[in-house]
Design goal:
Helix content is about 5%, strand content about 55%. The protein has one domain (about 5-270): Jelly Rolls (Sandwich). The protein has one helix at about 260-270, and strands spanning about 5-10, 10-15, 20-25, 35-45, 55-60, 65-70, 75-80, 85, 90-95, 100-105, 115-120, 130-135, 145, 150-155, 155-160, 160, 170-180, 185, 195-205, 210, 215-220, 225-240, 250, 255. A hairpin with a 2-residue loop joins strand 13 (about 145) and strand 14 (about 150-155). The chain is mainly beta.
Length: about 280
């Protein structure tokens, strides 16, 4: 390894919701929580049997979900009265915080469904704050162009651009790097200690080191990056964030700081007091 790549990991097959087939990339045996990132799933199939059952209504408390679509459409409804449809190139951000019940269901009966869901932890001071939700369609996502390649900035700041997803008090980045030619894309370090890259199409070179489709790499936090395609077309999700540095207690859709808080979340859900 060249000093940029700290480790390499591959996701594992998994199912969630009502049986949706997916690949769990973060929060699996070889790669646990990467503070502040709790989980990263990729769902990708053109077989409706793999996704049609969707994610019927279920609870969350204590963290944020960020859904980003490459292809297909997913509909969202929640207990706060929010609803929307996220399509290719768009994102939906949901701060579950003290509690929300939501469902995510395919808005299609056939064709390719491809996207990601990222879970981002909240600091203890925010875990019981009010729930929030926002829809960010494709046209609201800034595109930073390099030749025939580009960065789509979903969250955070890069080169004077701001992604539509911003979270008060937390500084994190989510960017989609798409390569249609061999143009190199520079990404300068912002000093965020957790820095990850996942290649979802083709293969790329990060400071000369090849990373293949399906690989997630942990990257040095302080190095500037030069990223180019090793085989086009290529696509890569880049994540960076500042660790919260607090204990993590997780039970399924609840992420708190202590086991006692988890048990309270379960009781609140069972007694209809999770939301509101």
């Amino acid at each position: 390894m060249n000093g940029i790549v700290r480790s390499r990991h591959r996701g594992i097959p998994a199912q969630d919701g009502a049986g949706v087939k997916l690949t769990r990339i973060i929060n699996q045996p070889s790669l646990r929580h990467q503070d502040p990132f709790l989980m990263l799933d990729e769902f990708r199939s053109d077989n409706p049997n793999d996704y049609i059952a969707g994610f019927p209504p279920h609870p969350h408390r204590g963290f944020v979900t960020l859904t980003y679509m490459l292809a297909g459409q997913m509909a969202h409804e929640d207990s706060e009265g929010n609803s929307g449809v996220v399509g290719a190139g768009g994102a939906q951000w949901m701060k579950a915080a003290r509690g929300i019940i939501h469902g995510e269901m395919p808005k299609q009966e056939d064709g390719l469904m491809w996207g990601f869901q990222l879970w981002i932890n909240l600091p203890a001071a925010e875990k019981m704050s009010p729930a929030e939700w926002a829809d960010h369609p494709e046209h609201s996502v800034p595109k930073i162009v390099y030749g025939d390649s580009e960065i789509r900035l979903i969250a955070g700041e890069l080169e004077g651009n701001r992604g539509p997803v911003q979270q008060q008090g937390q500084r994190f980045l989510m960017a989609d790097l798409r390569f249609s030619d061999n143009t190199a894309i520079p990404v300068f370090s912002a000093g965020q200690a957790s820095r990850l890259a996942y290649v979802y199409q083709g293969s790329v070179r990060i400071n000369g080191e090849s990373v293949e489709r399906g690989e997630l790499v942990r990257l040095d936090a302080d190095s500037n990056l030069t990223i180019s395609a090793a085989a086009v077309p290529a696509g890569m999700i880049l994540l960076a964030g500042e660790p919260i540095g607090e204990p993590i207690a997780q039970y399924g859709p609840f992420v708190m700081n202590t086991q006692a808080e988890i048990e309270q979340a379960i009781r609140d859900y069972q007694q209809g007091r999770l939301t509101g």
